[in-house]
């Protein structure tokens, strides 16, 4: 999907979602049926439920609530807009929409909106989104209508993402650019992140989005190099994704770039360190780590539930050793997790000022 939005994917639903911000897996019963045991045993080397790997307590999350959350949810319903946050049942929806939680709440509400429909032209093995070689054409008025709706909300940071659209000549890049430009005209102060596909590596499509006025260009490598062919659609690729990020960074002075990695797929520490080095070499500023969660038994098996302490290690390693400007790392972290938190907002505004000098 476009965004290859990464995170763990949501269960299949009536309306599929972009892959990057996926969701918690459905809570499984302590008692596994004989049917599931039989099915999981026949699905092959990379899929099926591993009954020996139990979902830990730290992946449980409270139901979303809060005044801003309630207001935004009501507005979305009235405007008939869909967010990855809701469609994927993201565990962080309340925290992001309310602008944080606890003493560190920053007050910058964040939401992630899907563009270009709900059907992907690719079939990554971690993602439960519906696929088709010929999805329905996108709504030609979507960029303007979406921008007007977002401008009417109280959010200070918006993430735009989509499914992959290999059926479109420009991969949907023009659609993204129109949405961003219109939104910036209506609300110049809003911060905009675009979590996009690799556009088949097309330099023109990448540049179109990178120079359209957005503040953060995000594209996910999803996993370490060795697991790319197992995890992602064959049309995606490690080097292609790094090339997209590198080109986007070079296309506009001051542009913040970002990528995400799922953990729990069988990757090794040395492979993660190499991926971080490669992202740094491509000019990436922000990296997020989160736990992969299997949406259905026919998707990739969770090999390991990474502990919160190990996620803390990767944050410290990424910032202190590799030198990323910011790393968000935790079991429930998703691609767009707290994208508009105060530190990131300050980083973006600083980059804006620097590019004007």
TrEMBL record:
Gene3D superfamilies: Aldolase class I
Residues holding [4Fe-4S] cluster 2: 120, 124, 127
Binding residues annotated for [4Fe-4S] cluster 1, in chain numbering: 85, 90, 96, 336
One annotated GO biological process: lipoate biosynthetic process
Keywords: 4Fe-4S, Chloroplast, Iron, Iron-sulfur, Metal-binding, Plastid, S-adenosyl-L-methionine, Transferase
Subcellular location field: Plastid, Chloroplast
GO molecular function per UniProt: 4 iron, 4 sulfur cluster binding; lipoate synthase activity; metal ion binding
UniProt-listed Enzyme Commission number(s): 2.8.1.8
InterPro entries: Aldolase_TIM, Elp3/MiaA/NifB-like_rSAM, LIAS_N, Lipoyl_synth, Lipoyl_synth_chlpt, rSAM, rSAM_sf
Compositional bias ranges of the Polar residues kind: 21-32
GO cellular component terms given for this protein: chloroplast; mitochondrion
Catalytic activity: [[Fe-S] cluster scaffold protein carrying a second [4Fe-4S](2+) cluster] + N(6)-octanoyl-L-lysyl-[protein] + 2 oxidized [2Fe-2S]-[ferredoxin] + 2 S-adenosyl-L-methionine + 4 H(+) = [[Fe-S] cluster scaffold protein] + N(6)-[(R)-dihydrolipoyl]-L-lysyl-[protein] + 4 Fe(3+) + 2 hydrogen sulfide + 2 5'-deoxyadenosine + 2 L-methionine + 2 reduced [2Fe-2S]-[ferredoxin]
UniProt family annotation: Belongs to the radical SAM superfamily. Lipoyl synthase family.
Identification of the protein by name: Lipoyl synthase, chloroplastic
Organism: Selaginella moellendorffii
Gene that specifies this protein: LIP1P
């Amino acid at each position: 999907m476009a965004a290859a939005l990464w995170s763990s994917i949501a269960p299949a639903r009536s309306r599929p979602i972009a892959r990057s911000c996926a969701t918690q897996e459905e809570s499984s019963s302590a008692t596994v049926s004989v049917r599931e045991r039989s099915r999981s045993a026949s699905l092959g080397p990379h899929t099926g439920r591993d009954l020996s790997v139990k979902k830990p307590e730290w992946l449980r999350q409270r139901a979303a609530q809060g005044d801003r959350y309630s207001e935004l949810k009501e507005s979305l319903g009235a405007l008939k807009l869909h967010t990855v946050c809701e469609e994927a049942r993201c565990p962080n929806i309340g925290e992001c929409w309310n602008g944080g939680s606890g003493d560190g709440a920053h007050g910058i509400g964040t939401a992630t909106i899907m563009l270009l429909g709900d059907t992907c032209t690719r079939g990554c093995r971690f993602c439960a989104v519906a696929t088709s070689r010929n999805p329905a054409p996108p709504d030609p008025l979507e960029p303007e209508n979406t921008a007007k709706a977002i401008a009417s909300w109280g959010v200070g940071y918006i993430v735009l993402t989509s499914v992959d659209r290999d059926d479109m000549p420009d991969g949907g890049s023009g659609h993204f650019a129109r949405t961003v430009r219109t939104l910036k005209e209506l609300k110049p102060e809003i911060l905009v992140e675009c979590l996009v596909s690799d556009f088949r590596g097309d330099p023109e499509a990448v540049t179109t989005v990178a120079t359209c006025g957005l503040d953060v260009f995000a594209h996910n490598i999803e996993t370490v190099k060795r697991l790319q062919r197992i995890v992602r659609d064959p049309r995606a690729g490690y080097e292609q994704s790094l090339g997209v990020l590198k080109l986007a960074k070079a296309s506009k002075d001051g542009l913040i770039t970002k990528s995400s990695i799922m953990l729990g797929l069988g990757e090794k520490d040395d492979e993660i360190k190499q991926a971080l080095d490669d992202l740094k070499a491509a000019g990436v500023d922000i990296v997020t780590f989160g736990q992969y969660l299997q949406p259905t038994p026919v998707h990739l098996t969770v090999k390991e539930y990474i502990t919160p302490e190990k996620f803390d290690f990767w944050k410290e390693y990424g910032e202190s050793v590799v030198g990323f400007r910011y790393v968000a790392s935790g079991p429930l972290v998703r691609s767009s997790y707290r994208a508009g938190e105060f530190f990131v907002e300050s980083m973006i505004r600083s980059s804006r000022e620097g590019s004007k000098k």
